[in-house]
Amino acid sequence: MLIWKCIDIADSERAFLFRRNRFVRVLEPGRHRVMQLAGQTRIEVHDISKVLFERPNSKFLLNSHAEKLAPYIESYELTDTQVGLLYRDGHLVDVLNPGSFLPVWKGVEQVRVDIIDISEDYTVDEKLVSLLGRGAGVTRKGSALPAIHYVEVPDEHLGLLTVNGKLEQRLAPGSYGFWKCNRSIGVQLVDLRLQTVEVSGQEILTKDRVSLRINLSASYRVLDPEKAVLKLGKYAEFIYRELQLRLREAVGTQSLDELLEDKDSLNLGIARDVRDKLAQYGIEIATVGVKDIILPGDMKQILNQVVEAQKESEANLIKRREETQAMRSLHNTARMMENSPVLMRLKELEALERVTARIDKISVYGGLEGVLNNLVKLQPSGAS
Q: Which of 72, 83, 119, 363 has the maximal Cβ count within 10 Å?
């Protein structure tokens, strides 16, 4: 039984006509009178405004009916060593992975696919880095980030590029992009500036078994990034452990008094040992210094008592020395007065002056001569 059916196709549509599940032709915009064969005729309508031809088994259909579909659909296919840049009306909208198959409708937009061979060169062109690197190449499906490894190397830093686990090159400061398809890309940034490491709260026993808490600070810079990264990996942790071990060795071989008297020798010893060790890995130690030596509470009290006793002893020694000096001076003065009557008389007048300065009123008997001769009179020792 034959049944005719009218079908309207819009300007933004194309229809595929199938009979007995076999493709017959493409129906263009307009009204079409289609003969139905007992339900064996099927119409498949597609919206071409989406540009992309999305249909299961689209590749098989295009290959099987290339002549009939060529005026309507164009396809792009990439090999396993190629990536594609999809442009629509001059705008980059997507990145096609290796092995991709992309059919598009003709006459809707200007579609272009730039194919890039990444079998040997995996570096993204500098002009594309700004478009794709930071996710600026956002597509209608997603972003270009899954296909590209983007990295920025700041000033005073160096980047080490590894491809499939092998170090390939150094990266100077700047922006870089690398195709990740079919390979493993990694970039490790190395800071070339002077850096600081703190070794804090170390509980250590001295040679005389006194428990101390010591804080150490050091500064370093990386001179050979390849040695530091390849041989040490996490070189900052290695530096911390080396400083920690050298500090414990240095403190454990000295007594408390030695440490407190000469901290500079402790710093120099640690710096010398660590510098020789780290130089083998391209790292330079700039400074090492013990910031704090913290004593336990009871030890602080004992040391305070020791210091107090030492200072008291020093004060007594100074006092005795001054008293001895004063006695010696008095002895010399007495000997000079014994041999000089004039000097003896001057001393008497000096004593008289001091006596009169301390009293308000004096009753004099015997006149001025009695005051001068009898009020104050010094006699040599042994005189009657």
A: 83
What residues in the chain have per-residue pLDDT under 50? 136-142, 381-382, 384
Same-domain pairing of 275 and 249: yes
Instruction: Write out the residue range of the structural domain in which residue 364 sits.
Output: 340-384
The confidence score (pLDDT) of residue 16 equals 92
The neighbouring-strand residues paired with 50 are: none
Q: Residue 256 corresponds to which tokens in the numbers above?
A: 């408390």
Which amino acid is residue 123, in one-letter code?
T
What is the tens place of the pLDDT at every residue in 137-183?
444 444 566 788 888 999 999 999 999 989 999 999 999 989 888 88
Q: What is the DSSP string of 170-211?
A: EE-SEEEEEE-TTS-EEEEEEE-S-EEEEEEEEEEE-TT--E
User: 3-class DSSP state for residue 116?
Assistant: strand
Considering the domain architecture, whether residues 205 and 274 belong to the same structural domain is answered as yes
CA distances from 337 to 326, 328, 329, 374, 378 (A): 17, 14, 12, 19, 10
Residues 216 and 280 occupy one common structural domain: yes
Scanning the structure block, which residue is given the tokens 């096609």? 96
Q: Is residue 324 part of a domain?
A: yes
